[in-house]
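RETRY 2/3 - previous attempt timed out on the joint model. Re-submitting the same 741-residue input unchanged.
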Amino acid sequence: MVDVTKADRLASGQGSAFADTLDRFRRSSEFVIMPILALIVSGVLFSIFLLALGKSPADFFSLVWRGGFGTSFSWQNTLVRASPLIFTALCVAIPARLGLVIIGGEGALVLGGFAAAAIAIPMVPWAPAPLLLPVMALAAIVAGGIWIGFVGALRHYRGVNETIASLLLFYIAVSILNFFVEGALRDPSDPNKPSTMPIGRDNMIGAIPGTDVHWGLVFGIVLCILLYLLMNRTTFGFAARITGGNLRAAQAQGLPVGKLMVISCAIAGACAGLAGFFEVTAIHGKANASLIAGYGFTGILVSFLARHNPLVIVPVAIFLGGIAASGGLVQRRMDLPDATVLVLQGLIFVVLLVSETFYGRLPFFRSKGDL
Amino acid sequence: MSKFELNRRSLLKTSAAGLLGLSAAGLPRMASAAGLTVGIVYVGPRDDFGWNQAHAVAAAALKEVPGVTVVEEENVPETIAVQKSMESMINLDGAELIFATSFGYYKPFVLDLAAKYPDVQFRHAAPLWTDADPKNAGSYFGYLDQAHYIDGVAAGLSTTTNKLGFVAAKPIGTVLRNINSFLLGAKKVNPNATVQVIFTGEWSMPVREAEAANALVDAGCDVLTCHVDGPKVVIETAEARGIKCCGHNASQAPLAPKGFITGAEYKWATIYKMFANDLTEGKTLPNFTGGGFDLDFVQSTPYGAGATEAAIAAADEARVAVKAGKPIFTGPINKQDGTPLLAAGASLDNYDPSLDQTDYLIEGVIGSIT
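RETRY 2/3 succeeded.
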């Protein structure tokens, strides 16, 4: 039967390049239309939720628009919030290509930020910013890389579940931060909020001219492009994707699966570590408990929504950053609790995951002859 | 494959725009035309029975003032998010006075914004402002140790074991001062009273707070109080274990209908209304405002069922005295390690600057800072 229909299709399609193109377009449009449908469905579900609370969905969506994207201030607000999400989403996306689910990026962020601030302490008195900042960035990369790289190693060499390991390591990372920040490395001039010594205003990373968005956003976008190229245009990326597709097959092919896992996890951790670096150098100027702001966990959502594609991470992070940015306006104007936008985020996440199961099952997106 | 993904990238942009742009209907606008808009930012939920609720209660009182519009945002973390929330209140709501109510909001966020928006007044709820900071920023604070002292007086007459329990967050100046004042209150009426303290290490760690509260009860304490962001767990644990308790930050009276004695509460409404009136009348706001019972910045929670008549009488009397300026720290007082803090007959004014730098516990407190 397969043969017959395929033959039919070939016969009917012969000489009609236009029909072929149309067909291909329809098939590929699945990847565009499905997420749009999912967003619309979650929008409708959320509207029902709002109506149940007696609030107007129209007001809500206009406020989200205004608070997140409607004015130049809103855009800057959105981009500032999107920036750390880009880095932490990469911490999920890269290992995900190998089939690893890493959810402890927050730990690498915390340690990366702490390592950057800690290495700065002896350097601040003498080092100029052009020397200090790269050293701090390197410290953050190394700390984050080792942290999540260790998760990859545990997985490969000891068979420890990487999801649980990375999550539990987050708590250890927080304890390490608290131990030093409330102990040996505490700034004695700040008695009420334990922090490391500040790196000083002059050493901080400034904003992109004309905005208050710090340079972390640009670095994040560049990093996404680089990692996209790494995962899609190099043998390393190819081997990593094969490992993710079928571990046994990859091993049978003689691919260095363990090495791939550890390196990918280390890259992932380095990304999250950089998020911590930018939090310290562009926002706080020091390391303290404010580093634990949940960016690592929101990054999981971003990566899954972007289906672990580094290029898609950027717009998704901006999208979620915009929702977060508008959360305040929604609270203030509609008297809705802070959790409202979290409900919206959660609905989008669930509906998108459900929509994944429909890929390849809706007749519209299939060629006539396909099974 | 990569081609599809590139498509998806553009789709997420467009679909986001499509979804959010569904409606162009009129936005709910702020009501005020000419009045004053005040923005208040909280680090946690407004109904936490603690620090945030104390501010939210004051915000509700401020809303009653004619011509004043209040915009509030809760659960704003001490990151760039708070800077953007305050900026959004200024840009989108027209706020002219901002109350930043969490400690970590001040540096760098309030300072940065105060420099950026010189026409907006920023006030922060901790004594951090210095002369070097922008003049449109400032600090307001309540000296809650005065109210903890009153709690101590009532607690000292409510204990039969002479052991009072104190669940504390971090061993920092303000917390240590509250513990010391609580013990001094208790000792005033009951020289045998001791205070056993357990530090949880975090401002909000309900599990550890419950463990600490239970451990204190097991150790024989029969009155509990605390200094954590949200005292809910400690008060509920005390009530469940059948002992008495004193509150902190906001009113926890509803949580302990049987054992609640009284509590140390902020009265931020006094400051909020004062500042709003000053601005409406075109006056300059003070950069540094602090006070206790004398300025009506702190208050005692109305007595609960756990307060005996003797405790009520003694606490009322002590409050009148403190309000009139009677010192809490009156010698002889030794530090925990036996070194003298104040000789017999010496005393410290209730607003003595050295008390802001408290880094010790006094004799009679059981438990260690480190």
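The mean pLDDT of chain A is 88. Closing ticket.
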